[in-house]
Structure prediction request, 87 residues.
Amino acid sequence: LEETQRKYAFHVDSSANKIEIKDAVEKRFDVEVANVATMNRLGKAKQMTVRSGGRTIRTSGHRSDWKKAIITLKEGSTIDLIRGDAG
Prediction:
């Protein structure tokens, strides 16, 4: 997302709620958060071929589900993503 819109995306713990995410971002980056939007993303189905003992086995699996948070900062707040702190 663009810094001009003051929006930043984070991969967060699946059990975290919006209040916990807001508090963590404000404490970590020393900024003021205006809004937090979250979305639960489903993990992709994956297939894998494994060779074991001279045989080839085709197996399927699933990547873990995860949560994405879009943080909107208040006017005048920015995050320096290179240094990892408030700018």
About this structure: The chain has a mean pLDDT of 90. The helical segments are 18-29. Residues 12 and 44 are 18 Å apart (CA to CA).
